[in-house]
Amino acid sequence: EKIRIEIISLGLTESRIASDETIQQLFVECRLYNFIAEETPLSLPKPTSGQRIHYNYSNVIHVDKATNHARREYLKSVLLQPDLHTDSLRFTVVSDPPEDEQDLECEDIGFAYVSLRGIFEKQRDIIEQDIDVFDSQDDSAVIGKLKVTVEALHALRSVYEECKDD
């Protein structure tokens, strides 16, 4: 009764991000709808072209019936109302200002998505898969690849069985 999310690594393509000198440190936030936002505990130096930075960060979102009713209701809505734009986990790549420039704000530089409904429809978790990171200023431009694992199928099946019982 849980969803396990792993943020493994990030690589950047040749893009405005790669050439922007003000972007030096990056961390990744993962958000499930409006419930939970988790971020990698470390921000890492921006990778050079062809290189990857490794977060190896793992997190579990509990969706058991006893203590996480609202999250289960949300998962039901994902399965029952497929037109929702909220059926994805959203990964945000964030630029963390350097230590000596703490007056600068963190800046969202890219977004990547994993569809929970897609996992359910394909009946397959996402294991160490590269997903596209889209530029926050131009959502048609891919600025990199984020390698993630999302294990949600067991929880989604459980919620689906509950929907059939209701």
Automatic annotation (TrEMBL):
Stored InterPro entries: C2_domain_sf, RPGRIP1_C, RPGRIP1_fam
Family annotation (Pfam families): RPGR1_C
Matching Gene3D superfamilies: C2 domain
Domain RPGRIP1 C-terminal: 1-162
GO terms, biological process: non-motile cilium assembly; retinal rod cell development
GO cellular component: photoreceptor connecting cilium
Any GO molecular function: thromboxane A2 receptor binding
Protein name: FTM protein
